[in-house]
């Protein structure tokens, strides 16, 4: 494997860690962690999401009650200022990471596309 690519990946990791977006996300997590109510809501919502995701991966259907439970948990989380802020910053960071992945995958996509022509 190319040492140069691994070195660049390490540099990217450091750039992400030092980025304003990541620092804001880290701060938002710390704010939620310090607020007992927000943290309880966060862990409940996260655990519920993970349970539903596991069901999907296993091919198990999700009941309407579970969907409603998840929607209610999301609504409650969005009403909490610290959690709403965290979710907004997470969404931004997720978009940045998706853009980075798309950029990194471009050479392979071009290669595959040229092979199919």
TrEMBL record:
It comes from the Bacteria. Signal peptide: none annotated. Belongs to the UPF0342 family. HAMAP family: UPF0342 (MF_01526). This is UPF0342 protein HNR31_001558. It comes from Thermaerobacillus caldiproteolyticus.
């Amino acid at each position: 494997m190319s040492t140069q690519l691994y070195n660049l990946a390490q540099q990217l990791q450091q750039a992400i860690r030092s980025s304003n977006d990541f620092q804001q996300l880290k701060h938002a997590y710390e704010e939620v962690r310090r607020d007992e109510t927000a943290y309880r809501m966060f862990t409940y919502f996260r655990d519920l999401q993970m349970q539903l995701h596991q069901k999907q991966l296993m091919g198990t259907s999700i009941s309407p009650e579970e969907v409603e439970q998840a929607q209610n948990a999301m609504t409650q989380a969005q009403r909490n200022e610290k959690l709403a802020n965290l979710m907004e910053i997470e969404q931004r960071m997720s978009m940045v990471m998706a853009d980075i992945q798309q950029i990194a995958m471009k050479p392979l996509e071009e290669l595959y596309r040229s092979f199919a022509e």
